[in-house]
Write a structure and sequence with these properties.
The complex is a heterodimer of chains A (about 300) and B (about 525). Chain A is α/β, with parallel strands linked by helices and about 300 residues long. Chain A has helices spanning about 45-70, 95-105, 105-110, 120, 125-135, 150-160, 185-190, 205-210, 235-255, 255-265, 280-285, 290-295, and strands spanning about 70-75, 85-90, 115-120, 140, 165, 195-200, 220-225. Chain A has a 7-stranded mixed sheet, sandwiched between helices. In chain A, helix 6 (about 150-160) packs across helix 7 (about 185-190), helix 7 packs across helix 9 and helix 9 packs across helix 10 (about 255-265). The model of chain A has no long low-confidence stretch (mean pLDDT about 85). Chain B is built from 21 helices and 20 strands. In chain B, about 35% of the residues lie in helices and about 20% in strands. Chain B has a domain at about 5-45 and about 265-315 and about 340-529: 2-enoyl-CoA Hydratase, Chain A, domain 1, CATH 3.90.226. Classes of the chains: A alpha/beta (about 300), B alpha/beta (about 525).
Chain lengths: ~300, ~525
C-alpha cells in the first residue's frame, strides 16, 4: 500500500506548514478582495510606469507583433486631426488584438492609452493584475455584471485625458465571427462626451484565436475609421452605429474602399456576425485577411502559363 | 497668440543677414543698409476638424449651387477631377487634402447609389503622375479601389478619341475638354489653391483641356498683358479662362467646384529656421542652418535633390468652399490673400530673390535652367498686385546654382529647347513664331507625353512665355551663383557674390539703387502702392 503523500492534491504543503483551512461552522469575515474590479491601477499611469512601458512597447512589443502578425495598418489619416481623449472600439478575436492595436496607434496616442480588460480574467491573480496593468496600462472591467467601480474607473481615466481601448463584444470570439456589441462603450462615450474611433482588426483569429493551442504567425490588418461623435444619440443607437462602422471597415479590408462604400450605400455591408450558426458553410466563406494579402506577400512573380503545342 | 502679419523691414547695421534659397542650399547675404526685406505673414491657424469643414462645404455650397447631395442620383455619370502633382509645393504630409475631400465626396456618391464614377488627374500638358504620386494625392484607399479597375485616369490632352470640342468663345478661342468630363452629368473639381493664380475656371478650362484650346491663353501676348497673372482682375490669362468657363457652362456642363486653401506652414521642424525671421533664430535654428547649409554645400546635387524631395510639408487647411465656380473662387482668393498679402510702399530699382529647389514643374525631379528662369521671372516676379516690386527698366537678382542639368524622362523637350531654340534667340515672340508649332506637334514628344512621364513638347515654350512680362519690364537679370555658361544661354548675367551682382546692376540702375528683397520661404504676395 502506498504511503500517504505529504502534499495535498492541489500541491500545497500540509498544515502547519501552509495556512490552516477554516472550519465551515465558524463564522468568518471575508476580507474585501483587492483583485478583480477592485484592483488599483493608478500606479500604472504614473510617469515612471509610462516611460518603462513605452520602452518595452517600442523595443519588445512592437517588433514582436511585427514578427508574429505582420500588420497592415490603414486609416490612420482618418484620425490625424483627433486629440485625446478618444475611445478606440474594436472587434476582438485574440489576445494579440491589444498589443497589435496599441502598436498600430499613432505615437501621440500610443503611450497614453489604457486598455479595458476583463476583471475576471486579467485581474484574478495578483501577478496577472500587476503584469497587465504594467504592460498594457490595463484597467479592470467587469464583464458579467453591472459594476459601478468599473464604470467610474473608465470615466476617471478618460477625464484624466487618457485614451481607452475597449472591445465592445466583451471577449474574444470563439469561432472567428464577431458577437453583438454591448452597450458599455456607448454609455461611456455618452457620459464623457468622447468620440469613438471604430477599428477593425483582422487576421488575428487565424494567428492566435481563442481555441488555438499555439501561435501561427501570419498576416493581420488594422483599419481605423472616422471618429463617431456620441452627441445627440442614445446608447442603443450609438452602439449600433459603432458596430456598423466596424463592419464597414472590415468590408474595406476584405474588398476595397469603393466597393465597400457602394455596399454601404445600398445597405448591404456584410455583417461580422455568424449568419448561420452551427454551419460549416458560413465558416468556410468567412473572409480572411491572408486571402487579401497573399498577392502582395509573394516573393516571386506569378509567371504566365505557356501552352506549348505537343 | 494670433499669427503675426507680414511686414517690410528696413535693413540697418544691426540686421543679422538675409536667408536666400539657393537651389538645394542656402546663402546668408548682407544686403546694403536701407534695403527693404518683405517678410510674409506667419502661418494662419489651421482648421481644427478638416473633415467637418469639408462636410460643411458640401452641405452649404457657395454661390448659386444646390448642396452636393442634391446633385447626386443613382444612374448618373460622375467625374471627379483633381489638381496634379504640381500642387502643393513641396508635397504635403499625408493625408493630402485632396484625398480627404475625394473620400467625403465618394462616400456621398455611394450613399446616393452612384455607380459610374471616374477620377481624372487634371494634368493639362503636364507630365503623367507616377503611381506613388497618384497614391499620395488621392490616398491609398481610393487608389487601391479605382486604379486597378481603370477608373483612376490621368488626363490625356492628345487622345484623339478622348477630347470633346465644345465651341468657340466670342473672341474666337476654341474650347476643348476631356470627353469623359464633357459627357458627365456632373464634374466635381477638387483643387488646392496655393497661389492666387490657381483655381476658378482655370481648373477645368485649363486642367482638362487640349493644346488646341490652351494655346489661346498660353501665349506671349496673353502673358505680357497679364499684370500680373497672380491678380485675376488684371490678368488676360484669367480673362481668357473665364470666357472659356462661361462657354463650358453654357454648353450645359455642370461643375461643382471644391477649392481648398492652405496656410504657409511649409517646412517640418528640422527646417524650422526657414519659417522664422533671421533675428529670431535660436540656438537650435542656428545650428540647423549651419549644419544643413555647410553639409549641403559639399553634397553632390543628385543627393541633395533626393534629400529635399523627401520633404513633406505640414500644411494646414485654412479654408474650403464648394459650389458654383466663380463664387467659390472669390472666397478662395480672400483666404489666399489673408495668408500671403503684404502691403509695400513703392517700387525699387533692384529686386532680389532666392530660388528654392522645387517649382511646380520639377517635383521629384531636376530644376533645369528653363525652370529656374520660369520660377524667378514667371512666378516670383509676378507675386504682386497693382505694380511690380521693381520699376520698369530695373534689375532682378536671383540666387540659384542654375546648373546645365536636365531630367531626360520628365523634360525631354526642354533639352532641345535649351540647345536648339535658345541658341538662336531669346525673344519670346520670335520663339513662339518660329519654333512652337514644331515642338507642339512633334510625334515623339507626344508619344512620350502620352505613354511616359514627359511634359508635353510645347511645355518649355510656356515656361518661356511665363517670364515674358518680366523680360518686357526689366532692364537686366543677374543670377547670383549661377553657372556662367548656362546663365549666358538664358540671356542673363552670372555673378558669384552679391557685391558683384550689385556692381553689375549699377550700369542699369546707378550706383545707389533702392533694393527690395522678396523673402522666401514661405510664399508671399506684395500689394505694391
Amino acid at each position: 500500500m502506498a504511503g500517504r503523500s505529504k502534499f495535498t492534491l492541489r500541491g500545497r504543503m500540509p498544515f502547519p506548514v501552509s495556512r490552516p483551512t477554516w472550519p465551515a461552522d465558524v463564522p468568518r469575515s471575508i476580507p474585501k478582495s483587492k483583485l478583480g474590479a477592485n484592483f488599483r491601477t493608478e500606479w500604472s499611469r504614473t510617469l515612471i510606469a509610462r516611460i518603462a512601458r513605452a520602452i518595452i512597447t517600442e523595443l519588445v512589443t512592437k517588433p514582436g507583433v511585427k514578427i508574429v502578425a505582420s500588420p497592415t495598418v490603414t486609416g490612420v489619416d482618418r484620425i490625424a486631426h483627433l486629440r485625446s481623449p478618444v475611445i478606440f472600439a474594436a472587434n476582438h478575436a485574440s489576445h494579440l488584438d491589444t498589443p497589435l492595436l496599441l502598436t498600430s496607434l499613432p505615437e501621440r496616442f500610443r503611450h497614453k492609452t489604457a486598455v479595458g480588460a476583463g476583471a475576471d480574467y486579467f485581474f484574478d491573480k495578483a501577478w496577472k493584475a500587476y503584469l497587465w496593468s504594467f504592460l498594457l496600462a490595463a484597467i479592470p472591467i467587469e464583464r458579467h455584471k453591472v459594476s459601478r467601480r468599473s464604470s467610474d474607473l473608465a470615466l476617471s481615466v478618460i477625464k484624466d485625458g487618457w485614451n481607452l481601448v475597449l472591445f465592445p463584444e466583451g471577449g474574444r470570439t470563439p469561432d472567428g465571427f464577431a458577437r453583438e456589441f454591448k452597450g458599455g462603450v456607448a454609455q461611456l462615450a455618452l457620459k464623457t462626451d468622447t468620440v469613438v474611433v471604430p477599428v477593425y482588426i483582422g487576421g488575428t483569429y487565424e494567428i492566435y484565436g481563442k481555441n488555438s493551442s499555439r501561435m501561427r504567425p501570419g498576416v493581420s490588418a488594422v483599419n481605423f475609421g472616422h471618429p463617431l461623435s456620441p452627441s445627440g444619440k442614445d446608447a442603443r443607437e450609438f452602439v449600433r452605429e459603432i458596430q456598423a462602422a466596424v463592419e464597414h471597415l472590415a468590408d474595406e479590408v476584405h474588398s476595397d474602399y469603393w466597393s465597400a462604400q457602394k455596399r454601404r450605400g445600398l445597405g448591404s455591408t456584410p455583417s461580422l456576425q455568424n449568419p448561420q450558426p452551427q454551419s460549416w458553410i458560413a465558416d468556410w466563406k468567412r473572409p480572411r485577411v491572408a486571402d487579401q494579402q497573399s498577392e502582395t506577400k509573394r516573393r516571386w512573380p506569378r509567371l504566365p502559363i505557356i501552352n506549348k503545342p505537343i | 497668440m494670433s499669427p503675426r502679419p507680414g511686414f517690410v523691414l528696413n535693413v540697418d547695421r544691426a540686421y543679422p543677414g538675409t536667408l536666400f534659397w539657393h537651389g538645394e542650399g542656402f546663402r546668408l547675404e548682407k544686403l546694403p543698409e536701407g534695403s527693404r526685406v518683405i517678410y510674409p505673414p506667419e502661418p494662419l491657424r489651421a482648421l481644427g476638424d478638416p473633415i467637418a469643414a469639408i462636410d460643411d462645404a458640401l452641405d452649404n455650397p457657395t454661390g448659386d449651387s444646390p448642396p452636393l447631395d442634391d446633385l447626386l442620383f443613382s444612374n448618373m455619370k460622375l467625374t471627379i477631377a483633381f489638381d496634379d502633382v504640381s500642387l502643393p509645393l513641396p508635397p504635403m504630409e499625408a493625408p493630402d487634402v485632396r484625398s480627404q475631400v475625394i473620400e467625403r465626396v465618394l462616400e456621398r456618391a455611394a450613399a446616393a447609389g452612384v455607380q459610374d464614377v471616374v477620377l481624372i488627374a487634371a494634368l493639362a500638358l503636364h507630365r503623367r503622375m507616377t503611381a506613388s504620386e497618384l497614391r499620395h494625392a488621392v490616398g491609398s484607399r481610393v487608389y487601391d479601389s479605382f486604379y486597378p479597375q481603370g477608373l483612376l485616369l490621368q488626363h490625356d490632352a492628345e487622345d484623339p478619341n478622348g477630347i470633346s470640342f465644345l465651341g468657340k468663345t466670342d473672341q474666337g478661342e476654341e474650347v476643348e475638354i476631356s470627353k469623359r468630363a464633357a459627357e458627365s452629368d456632373l464634374i466635381i473639381y477638387v483643387n488646392i489653391n496655393l497661389v492666387s493664380m490657381d483655381g476658378g475656371h482655370k481648373s477645368v478650362a485649363t486642367g482638362l483641356s487640349s493644346y488646341r484650346s490652351l494655346r489661346h491663353h498660353h501665349n506671349v501676348d496673353t502673358m505680357v498683358h497679364s499684370r500680373s497673372f497672380m491678380d485675376m482682375r488684371h490678368s488676360e490669362l484669367h480673362s481668357s479662362n473665364w470666357r472659356m468657363g462661361k462657354l463650358i457652362k453654357d454648353a450645359g456642363i455642370k461643375i461643382f467646384q471644391i477649392e481648398t486653401t492652405l496656410n504657409n506652414n511649409t517646412f517640418p521642424k528640422q527646417f524650422g529656421f526657414l519659417q522664422k525671421r533671421e533675428w529670431e533664430w535660436n540656438l537650435r535654428d542656428r545650428t540647423a542652418f549651419l549644419a544643413s547649409s555647410k553639409s549641403l554645400a559639399v553634397t553632390p546635387p543628385w543627393l541633395a535633390r533626393n534629400i529635399f524631395s523627401q520633404i513633406r510639408s505640414p500644411y494646414g487647411l485654412t479654408g474650403i468652399h464648394g459650389g458654383e465656380v466663380e463664387a467659390v473662387h472669390a472666397e478662395t482668393l480672400k483666404n489666399v490673400f489673408r495668408q500671403q498679402l503684404v502691403h509695400v510702399e513703392g517700387q525699387s530699382d533692384i529686386l532680389t530673390m532666392g530660388l528654392p529647389f522645387v517649382g511646380p514643374y520639377n517635383v521629384n525631379s531636376i530644376m533645369n535652367p528653363i525652370l529656374v528662369y520660369c520660377l524667378g521671372l514667371g512666378y516670383f516676379f509676378n507675386m504682386y498686385r497693382n505694380k511690380p516690386l521693381v520699376r520698369q527698366g530695373g534689375v532682378v537678382i536671383m540666387s540659384h546654382p542654375t546648373r546645365p542639368e536636365f531630367d531626360p524622362v520628365f523634360h525631354p523637350s526642354y533639352i532641345d529647347f535649351f540647345d536648339n531654340v535658345l541658341s538662336e534667340t531669346k525673344d519670346p515672340k520670335e520663339i513662339e513664331k518660329r519654333f512652337e508649332k514644331s515642338f507642339a506637334e512633334d510625334p515623339w514628344y507626344i508619344h512620350l507625353y502620352r505613354t511616359g512621364h514627359a511634359y508635353h513638347g510645347v511645355h518649355p515654350f510656356y515656361m518661356w512665355y511665363w517670364g515674358a512680362h518680366a523680360l518686357d519690364h526689366l532692364g537686366a537679370v543677374i543670377i547670383l551663383g549661377g553657372d556662367p555658361k548656362t546663365v549666358n544661354r538664358l540671356g542673363f548675367m552670372a555673378a558669384s557674390t552679391m557685391n558683384d551682382a550689385l556692381a553689375m546692376a549699377s550700369q542699369y540702375v546707378g550706383t545707389s539703387p533702392s533694393i527690395t528683397h522678396l523673402h522666401s520661404p514661405p510664399l508671399l504676395m506684395a500689394e505694391v502702392q
